[in-house]
Amino acid sequence: MHFDDRLATVLRLRATGERAANTQFRQLIDLLGERPQAGDPALKAAAYLRLIALGEMIPVKVRAALVGESGWRFRNPELVKWFGGAHPHIAAAALYRAQLTGPEWAALIPKLPIRARGFLRHRRDLPQEAVKILDRLGVSDRALPQPEPFELIDELIPPDDVELAPAEPEITEQTEQKSGQSPGKEDVRSLVERIEGFRRARQEQRESEPDAQSPRLPMGDEDRHDDSELDHFLFGADYQGRIDWAEGNIAPMVVGIDLAGLGSTAVAQALSRRQPLHNTRITLRGAKRIEGEWIVDATPRFTRAEGRFYGYVGRFRRVMPEVADTRGAEADRLRQLLHELRTPVNAMQGYAEIIQQQVIGPVPHEYRAIAATIAGDSAHILAGFDELDRLARLETGALDLEAGQCDFAEIARRQVMQLQTVLSPRVARFDASLGEVRAPLGLAQSEAEILAWRLLATLAGATSAGEAIRLDLDTAGDQIEFAATLPATLREAEDIFSVETRPAMGALSAGIFGAGFSLRLARAEARVAGGDLMRDGERLVLSLPLLTGAEAVPAPESAAG
Q1: Which of 424, 450, 430 is nearest to 505 (CA)?
Q2: Do residue 501 and residue 480 come from a single domain?
Q3: From start to end residue, where is composition biased (Basic and acidic residues) (predicted)?
Q4: DSSP secondary structure string, 214-233?
Q5: Domain total in the chain
Q6: pLDDT in tens, 448-489
């Protein structure tokens, strides 16, 4: 029970700062890295959950440095497997420090992600059992093999039945002196002329035997008609949706096609609202090379001086039969994985709640506290699983937002007031210029509130002390543009949709995966709603289509709010 006592002691403490988090992270991996032995499974599960929680507080680079510190010897296959699925930097550091037996490696390596197996290939101290299983799985070094010298010489030697150009006469010392050239230069010249003679002979053979199939060097053959399968091409369309430009030799096949007249509701709707086309499926008829199913991505074009809409520019990409539903299949696999992960997490949460609530009998307060922590961490993890599932379904078109009517301006004003109370203690604020206008959307009230809160709470959580974030709402056109200046922590990122920035305050959370993931999820929700979320310099702009005319009658829930 010595192992359990130490683990319970570590878990009893709460990491309230960066230094405490780093210390507790070291303690946990030190205890869990020992050889597997008997102990309370609930405590071990709580330890892994605490590592996940600490991972949200400690940056990836710091965690990788902690794991890679000299002195660690991870002898527990369970911990090594857990690290193998972590960030690549962390996984590489852990697998470098892992010290397992041959049978343990043989049992563990097939369970590791493919990326983690590649890290092991660079180790030279693995047992023979590990090396054999890596070879069997096809894991090899990533360096390309050195090419064999003169591997094309055989291709340059003509067959016996082909007559070559006359060879140069034998070079003697007298001819060398007369010509003033060395034997090396003459040899190169002779080789060039031999190749030229070989090329002429092959050209004559092709002309005399058009159906002959033989390999040939690409030395100036005339261009032939391109009958290869077309998998993508760029295009431009006018304000009516009619293609007026396409790249290369594709233009004669597609110019004049009316995209709006192909029967696609998505194209007609986007054209009328001047919105981008994203993953829009279209069927083309005509020349053999363009017939079939296509996916269209296009951006509207506007004149610089007047801002007048004058068409689209974008790309067609072929829907390949064998990979037409690749993203959907990947999303299905992700959802299956999440379902499998939810089962043990739900079990841990339920078991922890039973202990915390003393359902089956009295429990010491310290164990109740640990159980409450496990239950909270489990709920946090399950919320992250839900967000992953929602993003996968949104990006593959398997989920649509609930339709309805709401006033986005009123939702934004109300949520900004709520967030101001959280920002005020840090002398930070939203400088909101939202006015009193209405912004009717064709979304259910709950969907619009989730989207607005995900965006505003993420920005507020990334806001530093004393920082002001300006918000502007423009409803002048046929869509709203809700713009916010980026906080300094997000402004420095090259891609704000992939940053791992964590909230600067505990009252707000950008989710288990950080601000970048939350913004990517908000972008997916906006695109499904017919809009978009994109970065414009130092601003983040959310665009959504407005309801117009009779459609813009206030919904009952909006009016009540």
Answers
A1: 424
A2: yes
A3: 199-209
A4: -----SSPPP----SPP-EE
A5: 5
A6: 999 999 999 999 888 888 899 999 998 887 888 999 999 988
